[in-house]
Amino acid sequence: MEEKATHRSPEDVKHLINRLNRIEGQVRGVKGMLEKDAYCVDILTQVMAVQAALNAFSREILGRHIRTCVADGIRAGDGEVVDELVSTVQKIMK
Predict the structure, then answer these.
(1) Exposure letters 28-61 (e unless 16+ CB within 10 A, then b)
(2) Gap between the Cα atoms of 93 and 59, Å rounded
(3) How far are the Cα atoms of 28, 31, 68, 78, 85 from residue 62, in angstroms, in the given order?
(4) How far apart are CA 1 and CA 4, in angstroms?
(5) Cα angle value 46/52/56 (rounded, 5°)
(6) Domain boundaries 10-92, corresponding CATH code
(7) Domain regions of the chain by residue span
């Protein structure tokens, strides 16, 4: 099976990694709150913030995927990219 890859510019990679680094920091912050016996609601609030940040990251990746990989596949006559996109969106929406 052919392994697919997306070619991103160095700027795009840097931007996405910076977002993930911020999310990683948020997760470490939640761990620290737990270790310090923070109030449950405060922890849950931070968990929701992490989830929102991950959702935003996913939306950005999905948008870039549609504008590049999917659009290129459609232009090349690869109808499978649409099926893959539908399957991916269905998984995201679970």
Answers:
(1) eebeebeeeeeeeeebeebeeebeebeeeeeeee
(2) 11
(3) 26, 28, 10, 18, 9
(4) 9
(5) 145
(6) 1.20.58.1000
(7) 10-92
Q: What distance separates the 2 farthest-apart alpha carbons in the chain?
A: 56
- For residue 12, the one-letter residue type is D
37: left (phi over 0), alpha (psi -120 to 50) or beta: left
What are 75's two structure tokens? 């232009």
Residue in the structure block whose two tokens are 């680094």? 21
Show pLDDT as tens, one digit a residue, over the chain (94 residues): 567 778 789 999 999 999 999 999 999 999 999 999 999 999 999 999 999 999 999 999 999 999 999 999 999 999 899 999 999 999 999 8
d(CA 56, CA 60): 6
Measure the N-to-C terminal CA separation of the chain; round to a whole number of Å: 27
